[in-house]
Amino acid sequence: MNTVIYENRAGDFLPLVYLYPQYLLRIGLATIAEQLAWCNANNPTEFICREYFQQKKISSHGPKVYLASSFIPTKRLPVVKRDVKLVNDGRLVGFVRHKPPYPATLDEIADAQQQMQDSLEVKGVVLEHIWDIIAQNGELITSRFSSVKTRKPSRNIYIIGSSTHVHIAASARLYRQVALDVTDGPIYIDEGAEIRPFTSISGPTYIGKNSVIDRAKITRSTIGPSCRIGGEVEECIFQGYANKYHEGFIGHSFIGEWVNLGALTTNSDLKNNYGPVRLEIAGKSMSSGMTKLGCFIGDHTKTGIGTLIPTGAVIGCFVNFFGGGMMPRNAPCFRWLSPQEHTGYDLDKAIATARTVMERRGVTMSPQQETVIRHIHQCQASS
């Protein structure tokens, strides 16, 4: 049974998903897409997303199970031999369709769901708001760790707690002066990762492929592939290819791809009155209900040295903040900002810089990626 993964409520997860589909968000040990594929026994996977990502057409082969990108499974799906809606605690997260026509657009999916009567409860977590990514990350690392094959770590690794809660890939490199604390959750260190001396990692934490962790203190976080991390990181997700190599604190935050945080960049994740943190998204102010919540930073954004990020900040993609001091709580995409200056970011210069940054990590910007960037810039300019 093929898996069809579709975006739903992607607008609620901006600015994180301007440049890639919602199902490529990273949470726990993997992307949403990888976890949805896992729950359906890793059968062939198809995708339905916003039109400007130029998705492939849905095949006519079936049957198919459709799964929403806001759903993170914690158990594999049962075999279902009838058409049925999939629900989690009363919330619709997908459906099973055995015969054509198979929905091929987001509108067709909405129509198909309304026509189904029977429902089946499935186990997992539903991400309803952007802050749920941070709130649920630690538990999802723990639940997924129990279902993956692990490799026993070398005896010369200093571990606080049981070594059964540590996975270190064969090609990962850890120095002796590294401490792994699994008292509160497991630690998974993926292929090619390098954990340099005087680093401490507390679980539940995932360190992605080819990431370098240098003299860092990392707690309850997910670090995506090819990141460079130093300083202190607490309860965060780094999507991948991000650089926070110097001292500074980032807590309870989501950091997008190709973000560079300058030396001593630090965010606040707690209000002085210990009240719930509010965020402003798409001009609407909302309470997260969370006492500790930091910032959300879109792709290709950069901060200069000495940058301070306020509690609940929402920063778009392609934002450059320089001059030190406090950033604004909200910044739209494609902006140059300082405490005294707010100007637009020339599109061609933004693309040229992004291409240079990517090539430094051995990644070439594809024509489709450039088309997406230009589309987002046009949408921002006309809004």
Q: What do these coordinates show?
A:
- The chain is of the alpha/beta class.
- It folds into two domains: 2-128, Spore Coat Polysaccharide Biosynthesis Protein SpsA, Chain A (Alpha-Beta Complex); 143-382, Hexapeptide repeat proteins (UDP N-Acetylglucosamine Acyltransferase, domain 1), CATH 2.160.10.
- The protein is built from five helices and 38 strands.
- Strands 11, 13, 14, 16, 17, 19, 21, 23 and 24 form a nine-stranded parallel sheet that branches. A nine-stranded parallel sheet has the order 12-15-18-20-22-25-30-33-36. A six-stranded mixed sheet has the order 4-1-5-8-7-9, covered by helices on one side.
- The longest helix has 16 residues, at 367-382.
- It is globular, with a radius of gyration of 21 Å.
- The two termini are 41 Å apart.
- The mean pLDDT is 94.
CATH superfamily annotation of the largest domain:
Hexapeptide repeat proteins
Do you know the CATH topology of the largest domain? UDP N-Acetylglucosamine Acyltransferase, domain 1
User: What would you call the shape?
Assistant: globular
The Cα radius of gyration reads 21 Å
Strand content: 25-35%
Number of domains: 2
SS field, number of helical segments: 5
CATH class of the largest domain: Mainly Beta
Which runs of at least 5 residues are low in confidence (pLDDT < 50)?
none
Distance between the termini: 41 Å
Number of DSSP strands? 38
Residues in helices, as a percent range: 10-25%
Average pLDDT: 94
Architecture of the largest domain, CATH level 2? 3 Solenoid
Largest beta-sheet characterization: 9 strands, parallel
| Structural class based on helices, strands and sheet pairing | alpha/beta
